[in-house]
Protein 1
Amino acid sequence: MTPQRTLFHTFDAPKDAIALDCGQTLTPYTVAYQTWGKLNADRSNAILIFHALSGDAHVAGAHEDGRTEGWWDLMVGPGCAFDTDRFFIICANVLGGCKGSTGPGSTNPATRQPYGTDFPVITINDMVRAQHPLLRVLGIEKLCAVTGGSMGGMLALAFIQLYPEMAERAIVLASAATNHAQAIAWNKIGRHAIMDDPLWREGHYYDSPDGPPRNGLALARMIGHVTYISEGAMDRKFGRKLQSADVESFSFGVDYAVESYLAHQGQSFYERFDANSYLYITRAIDYFDFAAKTGGDLTAAFAQTRARLRFFSYDADWLYSPERNEAMTAAARAAGREAVHHKIHAPLGHDAFLVQKEPQTELIREFLR
């Protein structure tokens, strides 16, 4: 594929103002997005992909900024599950992100300074509302499919509930209808790590000579990363392997290979992500509840949708387990929706949806066919 460039659209018309779930109104706002492939004559081959927490609009292929890979190269491209020779693929950075769409690091038009924590608290539904007008800009009235993994799966669920006539299919991978208590707890610990960093400065650190709260964000990423990989995968990859010596150092430094690995994950993350965006996005994940409008009745929630559904879970994923996906499938069927659950053997755990190509590629191809 030819190198992609990120496109930007600013929504500043009165009709585009977003009435946020928190009670505030956001206007103007910008959506950063990329596209692959071509729309067919009747504009019926568009697929909207939603990214996970730390993703962005660059889902596949080379990028004009020099990056050689997208975050879902295994699944998006010529001949892939989401075949760019057949489909027009769209992916946008979420509202609240730090990769081009409006978020806490953007300029607040009222102060001409970065929003910081003056940015309103947002929800998964708000993120979907921000992307919906982009389809109008692109001339798309109905999508062939919406899809995403983890938080992206929540966004896909929110889309088919908010706009039930706009997507024929929904493909939800490694996700859940709501965040469970343990996942909320891990997110809280990660946010605490950021907010306890002295450089956080109540979220107003963008012009600080000391820079952003790197240590807090690195720690938050280390905490979160542990939830994305199964115990067995950690053991197989690292076990009790020492990093550089034959014996323990009897200090509080880095003795084990897994410690070095997590430190690397933390450092690489703070070099590319914004701490405030991490706070806002994880809070949005915590607030997501697909059945909130139906009093917790999951079947009634799926009755508000019209899309055909495919759920993909991964047997070693303890963050969003196969059981949670099976419950969604059963509820969707009870609501009269076509729904199938594919439980995939994937020892890695939650992150398998990002790095494992089979068997979901053929299952998705068949569904899109």
Protein 2
Amino acid sequence: MCLVLRIITLTARRSIKRQWQAAWLLRALSCIDLTTLEGSDTPARVLRLCAKARQPLRAELIAALGLSQTPQVAAVCVYHSRIHDARRALRGSDIPIAAVSAGFPSGQTSFRSRLLEIEESVEAGASEIDIVISRAHVLSGDWPALYDEVAAFRERCGDAHLKAILATGELGTLTNVARASLVCMMAGADFIKTSTGKEAVNATLPVGLVMARSIRSYHERTGQVIGFKPAGGIRSAKQALAWQVLMREELGAPWLAASRFRIGASGLLADIGRQLHHHATGRYAAAHHIPLS
């Protein structure tokens, strides 16, 4: 009940309006891992995604907002098989490629194949690897096995950033979420991430609060900085603001930067564009003026 009250307090007390809202939404945009993870993904679909990543807002909206440069998202997230397409589409930019790996989304392939998939994704050009943990280790309380698994993934990532996806909707309890967060951080994860986006329940604020407090506690004990990534079902600008408020209140302003905070999303960009257009012009844009999601 305390978690619920804390979430209500966070979202009720921190109302962000007018130019401050626009500024926070632009920051949220810069923290998006723009994602396509569908069986229907094609080179053309990835090309369109990367074009949105390079210029997520229309030129006239950028001018109306008085921005000195074109904003861009934090990364593009794709399956291993689409890394080559993303590299080609992002050539000449500094937008990193994140690849989901290690048997995404279920984590039920062999351990050897999961390690090999990570290696191949790094070799193909991914500088960030989003792995999925074996939920069975958590549900059976085998924490040493979870640690060894994530540590092995960390080793195979090399210089690439490792984001550990907990799939919190399948872990049963918030206690399991907290323990899994701690083990993944101890094993070398650079980020902990809520969900694959494929579970029945994905990113929720109560789960985010537990994970954020785990990050804070770990940072206080070790001095190590661990990032946080909610993913799955975040489609509105209002939701993005709520997640940013959670980061600001629980972890502090440094966790509002893309180096420490990401939002995994495919449809969020469109609503951020709508809200920024309303701020700049006083009216919402027509659908054909907003990048497709």
Protein 3
Amino acid sequence: MAHRHSLRTFYLLIVTQTFSLIGSEMSSLAVSIWVYKESGDVTPLTLAAFFAAVPRLITPSFAGVLADRWDRRHVMILADAGQAVGTFLLMLSFLSGAFQLWHLYLVSALQAAFSMFQGPAFSASVTMLVPDDHRDRANAVQQMRGAAAGLVAPTLAGALFALVDAPGVMAIDLFTFAVAIVVVGLVHIPRPPQSAEGRATQGSLWREASVGFRYLWQRRPLFLLVLTATAVNFFFAVVGVLMTPYILSRTGSEATLGVLLSLFSAGALVGGLIMSAWGGTRPRTRTIFPGVLFAGLMFAGLGMARSPVALGAVAFAMMVPLPIVNAAFDAILQIKVPPDLQGRVFAAVMQLSMLLMPVAYLLSGLLADGIFEPAVRREGWALIAPLVGRQAGSGIGLMTVMAGLLVVFITSAAYLRPDVRRIEAILPDYAALPDESPEAAGIGERSPVPEGSA
């Protein structure tokens, strides 16, 4: 009975947080449309992405500490309220007629910082709300939030922008934040029992902020798995930020661009649905590594695709395994890490996985505009043209092929390490001490996790 109540709480949180995320995506798109129409330049939008990326390298460690110290509901409320304040300030800037681009950059950084409090608190709460045998599916459902928002928000934002302009869309975003804050405030999330490791790590804020990194470093296979994710994210990000100009160059159609971008989200949504029904493999590395390898190959295929049909098919296929991979990886952390340390460990994983994102954003434009696209017009390109073509966008296509193949190489190298491949057999599951029983924490008994060797 307690399981069913906790699962209801989990799904209620998922629904309301998805609702809030749709509002945020709509608001972001409406502001982007307004800024681009007024300036006619994409640079302000790429700079906004850069300023949003920087606080994501700093905030997670402290967010993880608060997620383990405080009631996790309060951390999620803080995340939503902080982002709502940013939206409100930006809306006032628009309504007063005093808007300047630095307002957008400042709010982008503010909202990114507060958004980092959401992830560790929510992911760690899954452990307390969902029993082990449902956790992979629950993580998959959690991964579907972004995909669902990506499907719904663009259409709604475009329609509402025409009716109420950017400030009106931001007002709707504030309403969705309010709904999320009220719901989170009303539900119950059990506090995790204090583990021996948790007691040993107590100290100052700065000391506790480093706990997640030390935990990963002391479990070297887990640390190497996270570094693999960092490298994979870097190569995806270098070219991922160029998808809009790449698709426009290949198709020459804004309408086709919108459809293809929706197919990215549709693929992720289908992947989440597959994982929620399937539950993944045991050991989970047999889900994670094949999934990333397939995504890397599809990413390379995206660089070679030239027709809208081929681009759409490859984009959809590339995104399907990603929520499956993320759900399986989250489940490993939730099983191996004591619940009272999970906020800090999830924060450290988030911080490390995004470590190279700002570098990727700065490099992508330089590589595309300075090297790869100009190379299309040179004689030597005739050797590469059969692979990616020789029209505008072919240089970015070659970047995409190279990035996808590098993802395949890095993932294969990591899988060839026995300690990384057999991480679930090597690292022990978290086992509650007698005075740390799951029943005392308000959750059911842990079911055994089948282990196996790859």
